[in-house]
Specification:
Blueprint: E1 16-22, E2 51-52, H1 54-71, H2 82-85, E3 87-88, E4 109-110, H3 115-118, E5 127-129, E6 132-134, E7 144-152, E8 157-168, E9 176-183, H4 195-204, E10 220-223, H5 231-237
Antiparallel strand pairs: 1-9, 1-10, 2-6, 3-4, 5-9, 6-9, 7-8
Helix pairs in contact: 1-4
Length: 243
């Protein structure tokens, strides 16, 4: 259940505006949509703008941040398995028994660095993502249908009667998708805030979004605002392999 009175006041937090520039055609399907000849229409908002859902954006970014944190030597809980994301102190592995994984108010659980940013079944997320919305007027974007066929991986041949159509954005149009990211204050103000650094590094590792990426759809690059990083943040992240 959502309690509106508990929601944060986004006006008190300075948002970061990030821009994804699509280098190829984009295919983010909207299951169950109608009004198109495509078997998989592209998702749009109520005003007809193309968009990349915040849930997909956040999930992919979390995955990239997990890989970076593991490479730095930090123990990361196993997402998206809810049971393995929450580390109970009573039976926690030795690797998670660190001060960096302790949070005030959560005396029975440990929370890895990524959970402290993106949340877990016990801990709310520190970051709020908007949908990535295309800035181009929908009237200027024609419907583009791309045919495809289902491949039998075992026989390496096309399946019979499996022709389908995907709706995509125009190819090579350099469409800009913008969103705001709100990063709330850390529960441990005495600890260097590493969240912006990991998020920015994770974004640099996202080269494609949406479906049919292996077919060349959804490839992109980012325009990100500059952030100032204190030397203490680098020193903190370097402690991953220090037990």
């Amino acid at each position: 259940m959502i309690f509106l009175e508990r929601l944060i006041n986004n006006n008190s937090i300075e948002p970061y505006t990030v821009t994804a520039i699509i280098d190829t055609a984009l295919c983010v399907g909207a299951g169950g949509s109608s009004g198109s000849l495509a078997d998989k229409p592209i998702v749009r908002n109520s005003e007809g703008n193309l968009l990349i859902p915040a849930s997909q954006f956040k999930g992919r970014l979390r995955h990239e941040c997990e890989k970076i944190a593991r490479a730095l030597g930090w123990e990361i809980s196993e997402s998206p398995n809810a049971e393995k994301m929450v580390i109970r102190r009573a039976n926690s592995p030795v690797e998670f028994q660190r001060n960096e994984y302790e949070l005030p108010g959560y005396n029975e659980t440990y929370h890895c660095l990524i959970s402290q940013i993106f949340g877990d079944p016990v801990l709310p997320s520190r970051v709020i993502f908007e949908d990535l919305i295309c800035t181009e007027d929908p009237e200027n974007l024609p419907e583009v249908l791309r045919p495809g066929v289902t491949i039998n991986r075992r026989r390496r041949t096309a399946e019979e009667k499996k022709l389908y159509f995907l709706e995509t954005s125009p190819a090579n149009a350099q469409l800009r998708f913008e969103a705001k990211i709100y990063i709330q204050p850390s529960l441990k103000p005495e600890q260097p805030d590493y969240a912006p650094v990991l998020i920015w590094a994770g974004l640099q590792h996202i080269h494609a979004l949406g479906g049919s990426k292996s077919a060349g759809l959804g490839w992109l690059h980012w325009q990100l605002p500059k952030i100032e990083v204190d030397e203490k943040v680098w020193q903190f992240l370097a402690k991953g392999r220090v037990k």
